[in-house]
Write the structure tokens for this entry.
Amino acid sequence: MTSSRIVGTNENRSNTLKKNSANKANKKTSKKRRVIPIVQRQNQQKSVLVQRTIDYKNIVLLRKFITVEGKILPRRISGLTAKQQRNMGKAIKNARMVGLLPFIKKNQPSNI
């Protein structure tokens, strides 16, 4: 009896394997490829700091890299390299500590 059970299970396994492989073949042919459009970005002006050095005392330069609210612009918007962005962040923070740049927008009402 044990041998008939083993044979029966082997037959069932082979039948299920055939069914599964047939289902996989059907699924592969029924899949549609996603069409991803290629979007070309407009040429953005890259780094302004080609010949200038980043200095915390150069407020005119630092103001170009902060928002109206006083936040530091991200790298994808500012167009700086990673090293320049780090130095720019440090310079902006130093200028804030010295008092040359505000921490927040001046016209914001306080919610105290």
